Fold this protein.
Amino acid sequence: MFLGIGYLPRKTGPRLWRAFDAAEIEADLAHIASLGIQAVRIPLFWADFQPGVGRIEPRVFDRFGQFLQIAEDAGIRVVAGLWTGFWDGALWWPDWGVTPSPFPPHWPLLVNESWLTWGRMRSSFTDERMRSAQRLLLDELVAFYADHPALMGWELLPGFGRLSAAHARDDVRRWLDETLARKQQVAPRQDALFLIAFDALENREAIGPRDILAAGGRPGLSIAAFASDRRRLPLSVAWIAFALKLTLALAQQPLSLFLAGLPTAPPGQRSLSRDGVYYANEEEAAEHLAQVIALARQMDLPSLWFWRWADVPEDHWRVPPYDRPNWRRVTGLLRADGSEKPLVQALTSEASSLDFPDFDVDLDAYHHDPYHYLNALWKEFDFNSR
């Protein structure tokens, strides 16, 4: 099992591609490699790479190539988030992908580094302007770097789970088939990754792991360790074990786990709950992470991904999306000043083996009524795990 992490430079943050700092990236990736982490997941913010629907930005393309070379030199593999997409609680969207509207957007929407208050985004799945723009980046960016040794794959449309849930299932399936067929033509040796939030599996119409596999993609499970979706079970290893076992049964093949953040309280402070989010003290968070790593190894997962390299510095809190207080500011392995949290020690700790019961999944019963079937299965699993 290899370890990966979501990456933005600690100081440059989401201005990574516009204010490219090679020295900062070199130092970060060397530090990441020294911790035994083997891969990073980075967002390719759509407007940075494609300032116009039919126009690409050559300087940013070159900076991406430079990033890949720095990663290769550090022994780090890269998963690149194409057409980003949701990142850090906001939807980063190009201005040419928005239509005027007297209504506010459905999601927190960032355009030109500002919150959009009125307007609607064009659909990534059905709007021909957006589809044309997607094809251009596939043919230019993905094809150009198809054989780069540091690039292990592409996460297509970060936020796929959220965005697809707002569309008809048939439209999303058609988009998957067409998009992955084109990706296969230009980059046949690189994976196409899609993250599925566990709560989406309660929806009968949601795109599931088998849909992605059938189209030629690779699904990954994203789960919020600190809140356990709507159940509010903070730091519950049993819940993560249940989610993995169920998703593996649905996928019928191994898949990777992505921890959707592990927010921590300030150093030296006790754990606290605020606005429905559990902020663990640093030692408690480290103990939980060690248990999750042990579980992932025990279940032979191909990879485990942590959500963030470093906390967001306070001078970034004045800039969207970090100007809206939320837990994403404090989900890093490092503190904002660059010092390591005890979470880092969990990467090499030897946590005890975990014993959780196995269970069979009746696929027909699940597909008939996912919500009630899943919740009944969880109650039985939780009882048997005590």
